[in-house]
């Protein structure tokens, strides 16, 4: 029987409960799921380094036997072929996601027709959740309960504190 290996690509800066919801759904559908962090220079300076994001994702998926965490540079389709993956998993939260996701899925299909994009919906309670919003709430010291795992919340608080300390430091002459 054909084995289906899927890549779940993203920035994961940081991983949210919405991402984890999708990983849990995806690993039930596919034989193998690779959560792949994109080194995406277009996205500017990430809050967390690639290694930090990888460590957080690894900790949060350690109990899932068919899930691995990796990172990639360059085109997603090149990475899929390298990993012998035949599917890409993406989450659609609301209609507003659709346009960008459709464009990406169709362009990816043009680049590599052997790889299918599969869309899944996270639980409704995560439909308004994104890493960007989580970073913003964290930067103003707002509540993160239910939005990210405790471990990620801890990392966020520490990162925001250290950034704040660095910007309020009095420069020495
Ligand atoms: O979490 P994000 O930022 O929405 O993920 C976007 C991501 C990483 C999936 C997308 O930017 C991507 O696939 N980047 C790799 C480069 C690539 O293949 N670009 C062409 C896509 S049509």
User: What is the CATH topology?
Assistant: Rossmann fold
Question: Which radius of gyration do the C-alpha atoms yield?
Answer: 17 Å
- CATH architectural label: 3-Layer(aba) Sandwich
- CATH uppermost class: Alpha Beta
Number of strands: 5
Helix fraction bin: 40-55%
Number of domains: 1
Task: Give a brief outline of the structure.
The protein is of the alpha/beta class and 173 residues long. It has a single domain (5-127), classed as Rossmann fold (3-Layer(aba) Sandwich), CATH 3.40.50.620.
Could you list some keywords that capture this structure?
173 residues; alpha/beta; Rossmann fold; 5 strands; binds 4'-phosphopantetheine
What can you see in these coordinates?
Helix 4 (95-111) links the parallel strand 4 and strand 5 (116-120). By secondary structure, this protein is α/β, with parallel strands linked by helices. The model has no long low-confidence stretch (mean pLDDT 95). It has one domain (5-127): Rossmann fold (3-Layer(aba) Sandwich). It has a five-stranded parallel beta sheet, sandwiched between helices. The longest helix has 19 residues, at 150-168. The chain has helices spanning 17-29, 50-61, 76-82, 95-111, 131-139, 150-168; strands at 5-10, 32-38, 67-72, 87-91, 116-120. It binds 4'-phosphopantetheine.
List the helices and strands and how they pair.
Elements: E1 5-10, H1 17-29, E2 32-38, H2 50-61, E3 67-72, H3 76-82, E4 87-91, H4 95-111, E5 116-120, H5 131-139, H6 150-168
Parallel strand pairs: 1-2, 1-4, 2-3, 4-5
